[in-house]
Amino acid sequence: MPLYMTDDGKMPVTTQSMIKAFRQCPREAYYKYHLRLSPKLASVPLTRGKWIHSVLEAHYLGEDWKPVHAHLSNQYSKLMDEEKEKLGDLPREIELLMASYFWHYGDPAVQGNDWTVHEVERLIEAKMPNGHLFRGKVDMIIENEFGLWIVDHKTHKKLPRWEYRMLDEQSTLYTWAARENDIPVQGFIWNYITTSGFPKYPVLKSGKSFYAKALTAESSYVAFTRAIKKAQAEYGDVFLSEKKDKDVVKARLAELKRDRWQGPDVLPTSPYFRRDVLEKSQDMIDRVLKSVMRTSDTMHSYDFTDPDCVERDVKSCEGFFCNFKDLSMADLVTGDSTLLQRRNYKSQDPLAYHAGNDELKG
Q1: Distance (Å, rounded) from C-alpha 211 to C-alpha 216?
Q2: Domain segments of the chain: what residues?
Q3: What's the burial of 351, exposed, middle or buried (CB within 10 Å: 0-12/13-18/19+)?
Q4: Could you read off the pLDDT tens digit of each residue along the chain, which spans 362 residues?
Q5: What DSSP designation does 129 have?
Q6: Which CATH architecture has domain 1-82+108-196+278-362?
Q7: Spatial distance between the Cα atoms of 289 and 293, rounded to a whole number of angstroms
Q8: H/E segment holding residue 279
Q9: What is the dihedral of CA 105, 106, 111, 115, to 10 degrees?
Q10: Which SS3 state, helix, strand or coil, does residue 194 take?
Q11: Nearest-CA neighbor of 181 among 119, 271, 267, 113?
Q12: Whether the predicted model's global pTM rises above the 0.85 cut
């Protein structure tokens, strides 16, 4: 039986996430899509990514993003202490990150900031030549002077290398699906946001200035400006009372201000934000589609009925993004992970995110 079907039961459904999970480790697909399990305690990257997407969705719908952030912060406050400890101080971190993002791309005088947003969180479906339904949800469809583009918000600990974008199948599949729906997109824009966090800004014991390391660490103009205001409030006229300290801080502020996005024709220098554009040729789309269909055929015809026969990729189990390590080990050692499933996981439609659910829940 296919791994996932349309509501009428007539067509297998394939998503890029399903393809990725099955290729990475069949057992990942087994737990997530066959048993439809989801961890009760969400990972930090997943929770942070959903939070940032919700804020960006509100902003690009023309709404104020701060009430959305406040709502999710309130949801966070209701979590158990164990969950808060795992997630860290996300309300403060994300507020500062997003304030920096909106400042970074907020100069209306810069050419390229004049995106016309046509769609936000658009569900796109298209029938592949093998009869399977491809389904994806694009973050935005925008228009600029060069035409229509799909925009995908991507959160990473560090900005990825260019090879990632060249080999990325999701962007190619979304471009194909959009064109199948008579949306003539030129290609794909990755809207990268780095979530590694801004540094702390310790002040010298004398209260006169920041430690030297704080002045050389990667930061944003907004984060550093806030640190200056906080130090001034705590140390009063003592802080930056000497001209040499004031000059150093002023020079650092000027450097950070130059990191602000200056349009698509200027090389970006911010360590936190970047937008990369890639057009997609029809030949490239055809090659990716053939590969994805091969995996889709294998995945939907795979026999998941006997858990002991479902392969596991040990290397993947060692990795950070494996969500089912405990179940895989229990099934291997004892042959039964039922108790762990009830304790650590919940039943959830793995494609529920297509319907939209931005609540922060453990």
Answers
A1: 9
A2: 1-82+108-196+278-362
A3: middle
A4: 899 999 999 999 999 999 999 999 999 999 999 999 999 887 888 899 999 999 999 999 999 999 999 999 999 999 888 888 888 999 999 999 999 999 999 887 777 677 899 999 999 999 999 999 999 999 999 998 889 999 999 998 888 888 878 889 999 999 999 999 999 999 999 999 999 888 889 999 999 999 998 888 899 999 999 999 999 999 999 999 999 999 999 999 999 999 999 988 888 999 999 999 998 889 999 999 999 999 999 999 999 999 999 999 988 877 666 889 999 999 999 999 999 999 999 999 999 876 654 444 43
A5: T
A6: Alpha-Beta Complex (3.90)
A7: 6
A8: strand 273-279
A9: 80
A10: strand
A11: 119
A12: yes
How buried is 55 (Cβ within 10 angstroms: 0-12 exposed, 13-18 middle, 19+ buried)? buried
Token output for 206: 């004398």
| Amino acid occupying residue 173 | L
